[in-house]
Amino acid sequence: MDRSAIYREIYGYLARLGATDRKEDILEPFGKSRLRDLTDAQLLRVRNDLWLEADRAIKASRSEVLCLLRDLGLYQKPYSETSREFFARVDAFVSQPRIAGKPFRFLTIAELRELYVKLRALQRKGVKVAERSRILSNLKPS
Q1: CB-side neighbour CA atoms (13 Å) of 76
Q2: What are the residue ranges of helices labelled H in 23-82?
Q3: Is the pLDDT of residue 86 over 80?
Q4: Are 86 and 77 in contact (CB under 8 A)?
Q5: Residues 65 and 27 in one domain
Q6: CA torsion, points 37, 11, 64, 133, in degrees to nearest 10?
Q7: 133: domain range?
Q8: In this structure, are 66 and 47 located in the same domain?
Q9: Angle 106-111-112 from CA coordinates, rounded to 5°
Q10: Do 80 and 93 have their domain in common?
Q11: Domain endpoint, select from 23, 39, 57
Q12: 92: how many CB neighbours lie within 10 A of its CB?
């Protein structure tokens, strides 16, 4: 088993969660202070637990942002629109430099939190971003 690859994954998940200072809390149930002191099975368990936690966190953050986009009028899929066209519209809005600057699926948890704050500000101002013709004009042919 390539332990160094698993260490990289664990540290990557901790960074993705913004919890690099939680390593001691994760190792506490095993009674160890360092990752290298864990057995292979324990190391795999830590990696899998962190993967699940990171997956849940990204899904929850995406859901919060999509709910706000729905409230702002952008995240409403008409029956005549395919999922690809629908998410192209979401990506076109989110990719604007003043919003997030990259497509929705590439946003990290921290970037999704920042986007959530921006969208809440738009919501408080009463802005509706569902001006479909303006958003669709920003789409690039794929």
Answers
A1: 10
A2: 23-27, 40-71
A3: no
A4: yes
A5: no
A6: -160
A7: 59-137
A8: no
A9: 85
A10: yes
A11: 57
A12: 20
Q: What is the mean pLDDT of residues 73-87?
A: 71
Predicted TM-score (pTM) of this structure: 0.74
Q: Stretch 115-131: mean pLDDT, rounded? A: 83
Q: Please tell me the chain's helix, strand, coil percentages from 3-state DSSP, rounded to the nearest 5.
A: 70, 0, 30
User: What residues contact residue 101 under an 8 Å CB cut-off, 6+ apart?
Assistant: 95
Q: Can you give the pLDDT at residue 131?
A: 54
Query: Phi-psi region for residue 73, left (φ > 0), alpha (ψ -120 to 50) or beta?
Result: left
Domain stops at, among 24, 39, 57: 57
The whole-angstrom separation of Cα 85 and Cα 76 is 12
Domains held by the chain: number: 2
Distance, in Å, from the CA atom of 68 to the CA atom of 122, rounded to the nearest integer, reads 10
